[in-house]
Amino acid sequence: MLAVWIAAAVGWGAVAGGLRRGLSGYPRRIALLAHILTLPAVVLIPSLLGFGFLYLSIAVAAEWWALLVVTRARPERLVLHGDPRRLAAWLALTAAATVIATCMIV
C-alpha cells in the first residue's frame, strides 16, 4: 500500500508541476484547482462509501502516470489542444495500468 501511495504522490506532483509550468492565466488556475481537488476526493469518496480506498489509490496512480506517458510529461497538451486520439490513449493506458496493478497487488 505504501508503494501505491508513493507512486500516486509522485505522479500527482509531476502532473501538478506540468500544469503549472505549461499553462498560464485562467486555464492554469482552473486546471490546478481541479487537480488539487482530486486529493480530498480520493480520501472522502471511499470514506463515504466505506470501502475502496486501495482500488481508488491504484486507479489515480495509474491515471496520473498514464497522463504523463501519453502527454510526454506535458499535461497541457491534453488540456489546451483537446486531441481525441491523445484522450483515447490516456483512457486506454489508464484502464490497462489499473487492471494490471490491481491484479498484481490484490
Can you describe what's shown?
Keywords: Membrane, Transmembrane, Transmembrane helix. The chain crosses the membrane at residues 87-105. This protein is mainly α. It has one domain. The protein has helices at residues 2-22, 25-49, 53-70, 76-81, 84-105. The protein is globular, with a radius of gyration of 14 Å. It starts with a helix and ends with a helix.
Structure summarized in a few sentences:
By secondary structure, the protein is mainly α.
Helix content: over 70%
Count of helical regions: 5
Q: Distance N terminus to C terminus?
A: 10 Å
Stretches where pLDDT is under 50 for at least 5 consecutive residues are none
What number of domains? Answer: 1
Secondary structure: number of strands = 0
Keywords: Membrane, Transmembrane, Transmembrane helix
What's the structural blueprint in terms of helices and strands?
Blueprint: H1 2-22, H2 25-49, H3 53-70, H4 76-81, H5 84-105
Helix pairs in contact: 1-2, 1-3, 2-3, 3-5
Transmembrane segments: 87-105
Keywords: Membrane, Transmembrane, Transmembrane helix
Search tags:
single chain, 106 residues
